[in-house]
Amino acid sequence: MKAAISIFVVFVAVAFFLMTRKPSSDMQTATLSELNGQSAILAMDSKNFTEIEWLDSVKHVGQVKSGEKVLLSYRFKNTGQKPLVVSNVIVSCGCTVAEKPEEPIAPGEEGVIKAEFNSTNRVGTNHKTITVHTNTTRPISTLSFDVDVVELTN
């Protein structure tokens, strides 16, 4: 319990430090590739908030055989004026792996969140979600997909 409290205190202290520090003038004129290393700071600083438009956020896969892997792509567009940073993606189940873009997405450009669902031992209807954290005015988006997994027949 003491370890959990210590970790929480350190996390809060680091978050406070990152939120209160002023970006240098170099960061204000940084290129997109230079901003990649500053993703956590960008995602937390309201001066760097942008807008995101999901071009597809819900998928209906249909029927797959148990053991098949399903590849999914969720497209989005940066509709704001600042670089869009996807800071984290969280899946609802260990059967799904998601991949975020590592580089910031320039204003007007599109990006993709890729995911892979492993249907092994998932017979039946499956509804899965992917939570996406970004430096947008609404910082959390939820993507989802439905898939019906059927038993392999010999």
Protein architecture, described:
There is one protein chain. This protein is α+β, with helices and mostly antiparallel strands and 154 residues long. It has one domain (2-150): Immunoglobulins (Immunoglobulin-like), CATH 2.60.40. Helices cover 21% and strands 40% of the residues. The protein has four helices and eight strands. It has helices spanning 2-20, 25-28, 32-35, 39-44, and strands spanning 52-54, 58-65, 69-78, 86-91, 96-99, 110-118, 124-134, 140-150. The strands form two sheets. It has a four-stranded antiparallel beta sheet, with no helix packed on it. It has a four-stranded mixed beta sheet with strand order 2-8-7-4. A hairpin with a 5-residue loop joins β7 (124-134) and β8. The chain starts with a helix and ends with a strand. The model is unreliable at 20-37 (pLDDT under 50).
